[in-house]
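Researcher: Next sequence.
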Amino acid sequence: MGVAIEVAGLVKRYGATPAVDGVSFSVAEGEAFGYVGPNGAGKTTTIRSMLGLVRPTSGTIRILGRDISSDLRAVLADVGHLPGEFGLWPQLTGLECLEYLGDLQGRPPVRRKELCERLELSAADLHRQVRVYSRGMRQKIGLVQAFQHDPRVLVLDEPTEGLDPVMKERFGGLLDEHRRAGGTVFLSSHILTEVEQTTERVAVIKAGRIVATGATADVTGESVHHCTLVLKSPIADGALDVAGVSALESDGLVHRFEFRGDMEALMRQLGTFAVQEFVCEPEHLAETFFEIYREVR
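Model: Next structure:
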């Protein structure tokens, strides 16, 4: 498997202020990669640099083996991009916008009809002027234009903004199909559960620098679980002194704690109790994200 996206030492300054300061990462072909951080962290500047929309101060960016500084046109033909603040021309119809953007992409819109059907954009919708579209309708047009030329790489910034739950589910299906076909996804979003559900690896950016990166399951703290144990009868003090248990809070027959590591010993111990209910949930990206931000000053 080759490398689809390679960013090395990316720096972008506006005057003396660095918007991105030494960012490096790589994304393998067929991988879904998440990029998260608060507003102003440098997510959008990274994406704009990747697509040649701003000129980096220093660093190199290669997409599908091509350097964007010398081969940008060929790169963009293989990329589907949905910007975070997707704007359309209000006087044009939805179809005219798709046709214009398709011409810029440089490849035929082989999936346009199928995508419009799946996202419930009717012929009547497509022939209406964009100025009367809802936020969700404009976002559907954005998704169609990103996917319509069947790109090998998708670069998506806040892709589900304005979509209803049904359309979000269909978007998830489109991503799954793209991955199964060998396509690559670079997804930036402030909806952390969306990143958690759709990506394999994630990088967290703060103040222009990547402060954490790794498998999404690791960054979300898959080995950290929040547990609630409800018993039918009391247990002795210290009965839950099992390796991996921490932050234990007991209130009568209800015991809440965190658990890290292999659960085998814990489950053996629970087997000696009269258990009414046991719930154990993995820590999620949102929790880990804010923990990282508290730790990195």
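Model: The first strand starts at residue 3 and ends at 14. The radius of gyration is 23 Å.
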